[in-house]
Amino acid sequence: AQSVTQLDSQVPVFEEAPVELRCNYSSSVSVYLFWYVQYPNQGLQLLLKYLSGSTLVKGINGFEAEFNKSQTSFHLRKPSVHISDTAEYFCAVSGRGSTLGRLYFGRGTQLTVWP
Amino acid sequence: NAGVTQTPKFQVLKTGQSMTLQCAQDMNHNSMYWYRQDPGMGLRLIYYSASEGTTDKGEVPNGYNVSRLNKREFSLRLESAAPSQTSVYFCASNQDKALYNEQFFGPGTRLTVL
Predict the structure, then answer these.
(1) d(CA B28, CA B47)
(2) pLDDT-derived band at B99, boundaries 50, 70, 90
(3) Which among B31, B40, B41 has CB closest to A100?
(4) CB–CB of B34/B89 below 8 Å?
(5) Do the strands B10-13 and A19-21 form a parallel or antiparallel pair, or are they unpaired?
(6) Mean pLDDT over all residues of chain A?
(7) Which range, of A5-14, A16-25, A54-63, B92-101, averages the lowest pLDDT?
């Protein structure tokens, strides 16, 4: 089975500052990795995903994440945040080769961007 | 193409009442899922269905039942609601055996049990 740890439950930052949201996973098999974003009172939306190939993955809204196999991490970064980035962010993992696309989610990180 | 739709958006129940949450997807996906989201807990899987006619328990199935009515629809039933079931419920779907396992989510149902 897989599991995900999001190390920070809340991350407050000022507008235009850089941000990193941390995610570590554990798995006995190779994985696919995802970041989802949830804006207030909305469903989850895919931000980016790592399937294979380049370890640096770019997503929507200027976000990127880097897959680090040795550290079993998939941290999310943005060089300059906007107030509109205020949302909850979820890291998720799925085992490669599984016949069912089951995702295992972290507990989420609330990003709050202040003016 | 509506994606994943859920009804109702909001619901208030009294303890002991029953209700069914509806979910439908129009993406021809084989797999469907029900999650609950509670503050600080992330998303926890209640039940899933790998294909029409099959369902399996997830992490937190107690107090719930599901029905995969057809390929499009997957409903979640609370037979006797309890305050501990106050939560936001999300339905999701994806194509099993795909190259990757991205799930597509509905907008959620916010349920309060008094």
Answers:
(1) 19
(2) low
(3) B31
(4) yes
(5) unpaired
(6) 91
(7) B92-101
**Over the stretch A90-104, which tens digit does the pLDDT of each residue have?**
999 887 765 556 788
Instruction: Give the β-pairing of A109-114 and A10-14.
Output: parallel
Per-residue tokens: B109: 């149902």
The answer to whether residues A106 and A92 touch, using CB atoms and an 8 Å cutoff, is yes
DSSP A3: E
C-alpha B93/C-alpha B103 separation (Å) is 5
Assign residue B3 a region: left if phi > 0, alpha if psi is -120 to 50, beta otherwise? Answer: left
- From residue A113, alpha-carbon distances to A18, A19, B84 in Å are 11, 10, 32
CB pairs under 8 A between A and B: 60
B42 → closest Cβ in A34, A51, A107: A107
Report d(CA A103, CA A92) in Å as an integer.
6
Note the pLDDT tens digit of each residue in A57-67. 999 999 999 99
- Token pair listed for A70: 């040795």
How many other C-beta atoms lie within 10 A of the C-beta of residue A107? 18
User: Interior CA angle at A5 toward B57 and A97, to 5°?
Assistant: 55
Taking the C-alpha atoms of residue A97 and residue A103, their distance in angstroms, rounded to an integer, is 13
Decide if B10 touches A, using CB distance below 8 A: no
